[in-house]
Every structure is written in structure tokens, then in C-alpha cells.
Design goal:
CATH superfamily of the largest domain: Pseudouridine synthase
Largest sheet: 10 strands, mixed
CATH architecture of the largest domain: 2-Layer Sandwich
Strand content: 35-45%
Structural class: alpha+beta
Number of helices: 8
Number of strands: 19
Distance between the termini: 9 Å
Helix content: 10-25%
Length: 289
């Protein structure tokens, strides 16, 4: 059984759904799902769960994301990226010092209003579809967390590279547009590269072409991170040997462990367990069939 998480290097102009379709074909299974949409024009890390790993979505999707983005001052657009309709222009010049001074305001918990041209849904409809139909877009402002934000390079006049580590649901193009407002010069996101999504990083990412080649060479399993390894951020809890079958049957096991979520073991890895009021219960079954 081939299962686990494959870190795909998504190219620009390819949707996250397209990646899932390709991974289904390569791994020859319908049980495939990605861990967080990456905009079609963005590139970088897109972790995709294969097989029983799809059961881990709720445990992996909320992990921190790291991005490298190019912010371009002087032009704002309706989509907040380079593909949108120009809304405002300015000939003002932004210096490195001006940008650095403003970036400090955007760390920590901030309020962000997602772009109207996005996959975020309202009453079952994507904001993108509502925007295209000319309907009024409801206020969807929400709090996001910016753990780190810094300028890492200059790409030319009014163009800078910034790196940020943030919470799930953060829109980097909105961040770029808001930084422009704070500086006082219209801005948009010119380029976006996701370099990490939780434990899945650019260094271990594979393109669709590479995965196809690995399959032809019989090395496809080498591209996968096992479910056990992907859950390495969870503490380990071992049960007594005689509790393996009861645990697999969903029965609780008494433990002194604190309440919380664990990687559960009993003569091998069992899956994700939860401890509540001194009882450990296997919640996600991932042991060998």
C-alpha cells in the first residue's frame, strides 16, 4: 500500500486542483487531497495526502506557512496581484528604510480582509464568483497571525522581496496591498513562492515531471513522507502490549498521560490517539492492515 504525504513543487499557472488530479493518476488512487490551496499563479510547496494520509487533514492543515513574495509599489489592482485590473498608480519612490519601518506593524495578530477575487466562500459561494457577477461582497475580515516578516532583498526600484511565516488563511497578496496602504503608496504582489507548509519544505518538493519519472523507475515511494513521520510534532504515547487489539477496536485504555493528542503506539505505530480524563482512545487508524 502506497500512502503518505508527497510534497509537490507546484508551478505558476497550475491550480491546486490540477495538482491533485495529476497525483491521483501517478499514484493510481482516488484517495488524494491537498493541505491548503495555493493560488494558480503562485508557485512552491503543496503537500498532498495520498491514501489513508487524507485522514490527517485536520491535524496538518493548520500548520504555519512560509512564503517569499515580491511586493511591487506604484500600482494596485483589484485582485491584489499582477493579474488584476489596475486601480491606482503612483510615481512615488519607496525606500528600503520606509518599507522596513512599516513591516514592524504587521507582525503578531492582525486583521485582514481577504480579496474579493478569492476562493473563500460565503453562504456556499466563492467570493470570486460573487465578484464576477457584480454582487455585493460581504465583509469577511478576520484575524490572522504573522509570526515573522522581513525584507530579504531588493529587485529594483519599488520592488522588494519579503519573507513571512504566518498562520493558515493568511492572504499574502492582501498583506502586500495593506503594506502599500501603510506606506502610502499603492502596491500589489508581483510574485509568490511558498517555501514551507508545516514540516514540508521546498528542499524536499518534487515536480509532477519528477514524480512521473520516479514512478517509471519504481521509486515513487521515495517521494512520500510517512504518516508517522508527518505527525512527528505530536508527543508519543505507548500502550501496554495487551492493549493493541482493544485499542484497534476503539476501546479506551487507562493512562497517566495529560489530556491531548498523541502518536499512539502498541507493538508498532497505531495512529493518532486522544487522551481525555485519563483514557487514551485511538482516533485515526494508521496501523498496517
Amino acid at each position: 500500500m502506497i500512502e503518505g504525504i508527497v510534497t509537490v513543487l507546484k508551478p505558476p499557472a497550475m491550480s491546486s486542483s490540477d495538482v491533485v488530479v495529476d497525483v491521483r493518476k501517478i499514484f493510481e488512487t482516488k484517495r488524494v487531497g491537498h493541505l491548503g490551496t495555493l493560488d494558480p499563479e503562485a508557485a512552491g510547496v503543496l503537500p498532498v495526502c495520498v491514501g489513508r494520509a487524507v485522514r490527517l487533514f485536520d491535524y496538518l492543515v493548520d500548520k504555519r506557512k512560509t512564503y517569499l513574495a515580491e511586493i511591487a509599489f506604484g500600482v494596485s489592482t483589484d485582485t491584489q496581484d499582477a493579474q488584476g485590473k489596475v486601480l491606482e498608480t503612483s510615481g512615488a519612490i519607496v525606500t528600503e528604510d520606509m518599507l522596513d519601518a512599516v513591516l514592524k506593524r504587521f507582525t503578531g495578530t492582525i486583521l485582514q480582509t481577504p480579496p474579493m477575487y478569492s476562493a473563500l466562500k460565503c453562504n456556499g459561494q466563492k467570493l470570486y464568483d460573487l465578484a464576477l457577477s457584480g454582487k455585493e461582497i460581504p465583509d469577511k475580515s478576520r484575524e490572522v497571525e504573522i509570526f515573522a516578516l522581513r525584507r530579504v532583498g531588493t529587485r529594483g526600484e519599488n520592488r522588494f522581496l519579503i519573507e513571512t511565516t504566518c498562520s493558515r488563511g493568511t492572504y499574502i497578496r492582501t498583506l502586500c496591498a495593506d503594506i502599500g496602504k501603510a506606506v502610502g503608496v499603492p502596491a500589489h504582489m508581483a510574485f509568490l513562492l511558498r517555501t514551507a507548509s508545516g514540516p514540508f519544505t521546498l528542499e524536499h518538493a518534487h515536480s509532477i515531471a519528477e514524480l512521473t519519472q520516479m514512478k517509471a523507475e519504481g521509486r515513487l515511494a521515495d517521494a512520500l513522507t510517512s504518516c508517522e513521520d508527518a505527525l512527528g510534532f505530536l508527543p508519543r504515547l505507548d500502550l501496554a502490549r495487551d492493549r493493541r487489539k482493544p485499542a484497534m477496536n476503539g476501546l479506551p485504555t487507562r493512562t497517566n498521560a495529560a489530556d491531548g493528542t498523541y502518536r499512539l503506539y502498541c507493538e508498532g505505530f497505531l495512529g493518532v490517539g486522544a487522551v481525555q480524563n485519563g483514557n487514551a482512545v485511538l482516533k485515526v487508524h494508521l496501523y498496517g492492515e
